[in-house]
Amino acid sequence: MKAEDAWGARWANCAHPLSHQFMSIACEKESLVVLAADLPTVEEIVQIIEDVGDHVCALKTHVDMVEDFNLEEWGAVVDAARSKGMLLFEDRKFADIGRVAKTQMGGLYDIRVWSDLVTSHSVSGPDVVDGIAEAWDEVERVGGVLLLAQMSSSGNLLEDSYTDKTLEMGTASPHVVGYIGNGSNPSELGILRSKVGEGKMIWTPGVNLSSKEGVLGQRYGNPSEAVRAGSDAIIVGSGIHGATEPMTAAREYASASWVALLER
Ligand code: S5P
Questions:
Q1: Which residues contact 10 (CB under 8 A, 6 or more apart)?
Q2: Cβ of 164: how many Cβ atoms within 10 Å?
Q3: Beta pairing class for 33-36 and 144-148
Q4: What angle (nearest 5°) sits at the alpha carbon of residue 7, between those of residues 5 and 10?
């Protein structure tokens, strides 16, 4: 299916090149799944990419939880993801001043050289996004930022006024490809979509096909409902890597999300 037909107004209005890349991959794979590969070793991450990569559009990592990380070994993850046609998305949740965020894009993990997307909080103001963008500039790469507009964790402090200011910040920045929204609550998500409009993506964690509640305050909602409420990508961790058959699970999430997009 052609991306403009599947995505409609979103395709026409999202300006950032990474959003088009994501939407094209989604159409090739018939999937809106982003895998949260919260696994402790390089080997396990490479293995899950090989198992489920055909049904997943982007690999979301927390590089600082990888016990045996070094940049050379990490090349295996990058190569595996690229060979499966996935985007690389480091969920770093930057939250510092611009200068520090810029240097944190380098350092031990050198996120700027391999990531296509990163998350950032908006709490420190707009310069955090500019710092991230400057880091990509320096290595002559194009990347996109997803700002946390909502969270899925219970008791989080991202209230409506914070969300609104985050959207203002995102609207003003060409580097912001979209927002993280709360996938566990379709009505909150619908409101977020109406505020965001068509020009930015909303990606949602906090989705699971079976369990209602996760550990340590994580909340879950149904992935199809999240997409129908306006989510453009479902971020799935334990629902896939914790399943007895990750491949089968990935296919189920892919199909649930794709069907919901076409219904939308
Ligand atoms: O509000 C949020 C934002 C994020 S990025 N809630 C989240 O859970 N996440 C991330 O999504 C979190 O860091 C984790 O990697 C993933 C959810 O994993 P799951 O195992 O609960 O599906």
A1: 19, 23, 198, 201, 232
A2: 12
A3: unpaired
A4: 130
Query: Domain containing 224 — which CATH number?
Result: 3.20.20.70
Q: Which residues have any ligand 1 atom within 6 Å of their CB?
A: 36, 38, 91, 119, 151-153, 180, 205-206, 214, 218, 235-239
List 84, 93, 102, 165, catalytic entry = 93
Residue to probe by mutation, ligand 1, list 64, 117, 152, most atoms within 8 Å of CB:
152
Domain count for the chain: 1
Cβ contact 67:36 at 8 Å: no
Nearest residue by C-alpha to atom 9 in ligand 1: 205
Enclosing domain of residue 127: 3-263
Neighbouring residues of 91: CB distance < 8 A, sequence distance ≥ 6 = 36, 60, 61, 62, 118, 119
The model's pLDDT over 48-105, given as tens digits with 9 standing for 90+, comes to: 999 999 999 999 999 999 999 999 999 999 999 999 999 999 999 999 999 999 999 9
pLDDT at 212 over 80: no
- What are the φ/ψ torsions at residue 60 (nearest 5 degrees)? -95, 125
Asked whether the whole model's pTM tops 0.90, one would answer yes
The residue among 114, 119, 38 whose CA lies nearest residue 79 is 114
Predicted confidence (pLDDT) at residue 211 exceeds the cutoff of 80:
no
